[in-house]
Amino acid sequence: MDALISALVIFGLRLLDVPLSTLRVVMMVRGARREATLLAFFEALIWITAVSQVFKRLDSPLSMIAFAAGFSAGTAAGMAIEAWLAPGHLLVRVITRRDPEALVRRLRSEGFGLTLVRGEGQEGAVAILFLVVARRRVRALLRLLQEHDPKAFVTFENVQRAMGGHVPSAGFWPLVRR
User: Which fold has domain 89-159?
Assistant: First the structure.
C-alpha cells in the first residue's frame, strides 16, 4: 500500500511540474521574464521532490512508471492549460481576392484593428490585411474570414511585443505592451 501511495504522489507531482514547464517556456518565448522565472522556481522545486521520491524507491518499478506516466499526463495537461489560457497575440495576415471593404467594416465593428494594403498576386489584384489579435479571439476572426472568403490565404505569427496602433489589451498577462 505504501508503494502505491508513493507512486500516486510521484504521479501527482509530475502532473504539477510538467504543465508549469510548458507555461514557463511560453512565458520565455513571449519575453515575460518575471513570470518565467517564478514558474521555473516552482517547477524545479516540485521536480526535485518527485525525483527524490523515485530515488527513495529504486526497488519499485511502480515509482518509475508513475514518474513517466506523470510526465506524459503532465504534457497533455500543460498543452490543454496553455490552449485554454491562450496568452499572447498573433499577427494574422489575410490575403483575399475579394473586395475587402465589407470585411474591413465588419472586422472593425467587431473590435479588430487592422491595416489594409492593396497588392498584386499571381492571379491579379489582392487585398492584404494585417491584424494583431489576442489568441483568445482567433476563432471568432476565422469565422468572420470564412464567411467573407473561404479561399482567403491566412497566415499566423506569434507576436512577442507590439507598440502603438490599435493593439488590444493583453488581458491575463501583459505580454504585449503598448
Answer: Alpha-Beta Plaits (3.30.70)
